[in-house]
Amino acid sequence: MQQDILINWSPQETRVAVIENGAVQELHVERTLERGLVGNVYLGKVARVLPGMQSAFIDIGLERAAFLHVADIMAPHGAARPAEVDIAASTAARVVTPPAPIEKQVFEGQPLMVQVIKDPIGTKGARLSTQISIAGRLLVFLPQDDHVGVSQKIPPGEREALRTRLQALVGEQGGGFILRTNGEDSSDAELSEDIAYLRKTWARIKEASLRLPATSLLHQDLNLLQRVLRDLVGEQTQSIRIDSQEQYEALAAFGREFMPAAVPKLQHYRGERPIFDLYAIDDEVARALGRRVDLKSGGYLIVDQTEALTTVDVNTGGFVGARNFDDTIFKTNLEAAQAMARQLRLRNLGGIIIVDFIDMVREDHRQAVLAEFRKQLARDRVKTMMGSFSQLGLVEMTRKRTRESLAHMLCEPCEVCQGKGSVKTARSVTYDILREILREARQFNPREFRVVASPKVIELFLDEESQHLAGLSDFIGKPISLQSESAMGQEQYDIVLL
């Protein structure tokens, strides 16, 4: 699998597209005024403790208080936590004890060093952890821990030897380290360099925590351009093209210091066409913001995103190419599994995802579709978990969510429908108005009622609903006048008492 990375930079926004085998797979956007918070370390202040939810709200200087659950509070030094054991299990079994109640660990007004593990999403504030982790080029540093681990993506047979090497390099200075996947083939000198850099970073954070007041930012994670070299570049990356000379030079300098292997892949794009036009990326983004995703066979997906979950519905559409109906359904579902995995990455959909494949009678077809879906999901850098078909024929899965989806980042709810995706018909609104006038007439005694509404509603009152309006006017004994207001949405109206 060949990978190319395109970077479009402007003073207000950085956009990064990951291209695999000629198709856009991921899009990352960072706006200067809306930079993400994941990885940032703050000296927070406990604003409120909620024993019933075993959580606390922490003031870290943002508009909304951040959220800390008891499960994200660092255990006493040396005690294992489930997440740690998953990342780097040692050969000996480690005992995990349940955490103490949150009201016995934190109190209101307490200063607390915390790290953002999820950006604010929708109406929810940022999610925090008191276990600080600092990502380097090859390692992740856990300064409050004391064990050494290896990424689970590295083959099991190589982990123990790598762990032994890393333990020798860490020495007696303490602190926990996890070897990242891209550090598998690193030399001892490179690992030692990363260890020194991470320890120096932690020393700066601790010094700032003693000097700065509560709600201060102590450490900010790398910007998007720097994270491209740290997180996205791998052996499969052929080129990293950026359309800004200034940012190319800055990124090359950063790469020479921390990621020298990536520097030869960096290129300054000087073409006349905008860099994103090379793969029609803006067209892909426009499609990724729509509900419908057309498949090459003629079938299509319908993607609906809500705050709680995302649903994906598969339809055959105009596909009639197979010899029989079962084969038509099977081929549509196979293509949908491939397209769906790509859409999850491109749209950055996270949380609970429910997939409604077209019902298949044959069990071998069902298993083949699941196998194809798992195969495609395995290419995703973000952690996913997927089940089998439920009794209702649905596939449930989760995808880790740490930042806003593409739609939430680039769009906002429609002012007319408020995100519902539909509005009442003009006739429904006219009947609402008639009922409201009758209600008002029983409480007040004005000289006249004036209806201010959208042109379409007023037009209906003047035409098909004029008889009902006149009948209501006679019934209440008051004149009813009409006023068209083009700025109003179809569901909006005012009834003015004159």
Index terms:
498 residues; alpha+beta; Nucleotidyltransferase, domain 5; OB fold (Dihydrolipoamide Acetyltransferase, E2P); 4 domains; six-stranded mixed β-sheet; 12 helices; 24 strands; 31% helix; 26% strand
Mind explaining what this structure looks like?
The protein is α+β, with helices and mostly antiparallel strands. The protein folds into 4 domains: about 5-35 and about 225-280, eRF1 domain 2 (Nucleotidyltransferase, domain 5); about 40-220, Beta Barrel (OB fold (Dihydrolipoamide Acetyltransferase, E2P)), CATH 2.40.50; about 290-410, no CATH class; about 425-495, Hypothetical Protein Ychn, Chain: A. About 30% of the residues lie in helices and about 25% in strands. The protein has 12 helices and 24 strands. The protein has helices at about 80-85, 155-170, 190-210, 225-230, 245-260, 280-290, 325-345, 365-375, 405-410, 425-445, 455-460, 465-475; strands at about 5-10, 15-20, 25-30, 40-50, 55-60, 65-70, 110-120, 125-130, 135, 140, 150, 175-180, 215-220, 235-240, 265-270, 290-295, 300-305, 310-315, 350-355, 385-390, 395-400, 450-455, 480-485, 495. Strands 4, 5, 6, 7, 8 and 13 form a 6-stranded antiparallel sheet that branches. A 6-stranded mixed sheet has the order 16-17-18-19-21-20, with helices on one face. β5 and β6 form a beta hairpin. α2 (about 155-170) packs across α3 (about 190-210), α7 packs parallel to α8 (about 365-375) and α10 (about 425-445) crosses α11 (about 455-460). The longest helix has 24 residues, at about 190-210. The N and C termini lie far apart (about 70 Å).
